[in-house]
Amino acid sequence: MGMVDIFEDLCLDAEAEGNRDLWLKAAAAALIIALRKTAKARAAYWTEEAVRCIASADPEAEEEFQGLLQYSPWRALDEVVEAFERKYFTLDEVLD
After folding, report:
1. Which residue, 5, 22, 24, 66, could crosslink 14 as a Cys pair with Cβ 3.0–4.6 Å?
2. How far apart are CA 78 and CA 37, in angstroms?
3. What contacts 54, CB < 8 A, 6 or more positions away?
4. What is the largest CA-CA distance in the chain?
5. What's the CA gap between 16 and 86, in Å, rounded?
């Protein structure tokens, strides 16, 4: 199963259950996907997906993470990953 499939399954489960932890795992999966992209537009898309999942998990953090999307796509990705890992957990943990 690829990361996109994992992401989609996590989103479906998180939405059905309203589960904060699943939303955060979906956000982490989206960030992992974004980090693997070499095309700027695809990296930006997956970074935005991650921020959408973070907003679903933690509405109070939505403004903070949305603000990070103002940067160039590569910097936005770096900033979102850094903020995510500082606030929630490292991306490595989603693969366990």
Report:
1. 22
2. 13
3. 23, 24, 27, 61, 62, 65, 84
4. 34
5. 27
Separation CA 44–CA 75 (nearest Å):
10
Cα separation, 60 vs 80, whole angstroms? 15
Q: What is the pLDDT of residues 1-36, one digit of tens each?
A: 799 999 999 999 999 999 999 999 999 999 999 999
Q: Is the pLDDT of residue 95 over 80?
A: no
The contacts of residue 51 (CB under 8 Å, 6+ apart) are: 27, 62, 65, 66, 68, 69, 80
List the Cα angle 2/70/29 in 5-degree steps: 15
| Global pTM value | 0.95
pLDDT in tens, 44-61: 999 999 999 999 999 999
